[in-house]
Amino acid sequence: MTAMLPAFRIEELRRCSRRPALAPAPPGAVSLAMGEPDFPTPPPVIEAAAAALRAGHTHYADQKGLRELRAALASRLPAHPGRTWTADDVVVTHGATAALAAVVLAMIGPGDRVVIPEPAYSLYADLVVLAGGTVDFVPLAPDLHWDLDALAAALPGAAMMIFSNPSNPTGIVHREQELQALGKILDGSDVLVVSDEAYHRLVYPGHALTSALEIESLRDRTVYVQTFSKTYAMTGWRVGYLTGPREVVEAAAHVHRTYNGSLNTAAQHAALAALDLPDAVLDAMTDRYRQRREIVVAHLSGIPGLHLVPPEGAFYGFLRYDADLPSEAVARELAERGVMVRAGAEYGPSGEGHIRISFAASEDDLRTGLDRIVRHLGDARS
Prior knowledge:
Structural class: alpha/beta
Number of helices: 13
Radius of gyration: 21 Å
Number of strands: 13
Helix content: 25-40%
C-alpha cells in the first residue's frame, strides 16, 4: 500500500500555503511575476554540458554531488577559523528547493516550532508543515528589516529559524548588525539557522551582503543554502547546494539521496564551468538588474496610495497599496488588465495589502507593466 500524507496534514498545508501555480500570461499581457532571470544561460556553461555528454558523463554521479564540484564550492565558502571546508561539507542538490527540503525534513519533526520572519518565500512554511512542524511567523518591522524584539520573544524554544538574504519577496538585504544581533539572541540556545542566500550576487549600491557564515556567533549553527539559478541564469538546470554543521549536512544528504537521488551529471559539469565564468559576465547581468531597479523606483516613487521600500538586493519590489482590496483580488484584476504579479498574501499574513513585482523582465515589459499597475490601483482608489 502506498503511504499517503495524512488528511489533517494536507488540510494544514492548504491553509499554510498561499503559493498558487502561476497561469500563463494572457495575450498582450506582460509578466512581472516570475522569479527567474530573463537572461540566457552563458554559452560556456551550455558548451560544458554538451562536452560532458559527448565525453560519456551520462551515468549516476556521487549522491552527494561530483567530488570536484563539491571541492570547488567548499573552496569558495567564507573562511571559518578552526575549520577547513572540504568536499565532505557540501551536498549538491536539485536546486535550492531540494536543499531546503532536505534540511527541513532531516531536522524538523512533529511538534517542532520553526520561526520564519515574514513576509517570506512561501516554500519555507510549506516544508515545515510537511515535516510535521509548527510555523511561527514573526512580522517584519515597517522598513521590512527584522523586528529584533519580536524575534527575541519568538525564538526561545524554537528548533529552527529560516530566512532569505537578500530577501524574496521584499528585496531587503539584512545588514551585518542584524545578523550580529540575531547571534546574540540565540546565544546559549540550540536553534538551527537556515540562511537561503540565493540572491547573494544581486546587491545594489549603498548596500552590502554579509553571509550568516561570516558571523562568528552564527557560523556554527547555520545551514547555508545556495543555488546556481539566479547568479548564473541557470534556473532550468536545477543545481543547488548546502553546507553547515557536519552532522546536519550528513542528515540532509541522507534525506536528499532518499527523496531525489543524484543530480544530473552533465548539469554538474555545467555548474563547474559556471564557477569559472569571468566576473564581467556576471557583473553585466547584475548591472542590468540595477538599471531595472532604478526604473521601478522612479515609476513608483511619489505615487499617492502606493508605497515601495526601495529594493536593496534580489530583483523584487514589494509594493504596498492603500486600496481596500485583498492582494489576491488585485493580482487577478491586474492580470485581466495585462500585467502579471504575485499576491502579497502568498508570502505570509503581513503580505496582505502588497503585491510582489519582479524586475527580471525586459525594460519595455517593465515600463508597460508598471504603467498598468499605477493606472489600475489609481482607478481602484477613485
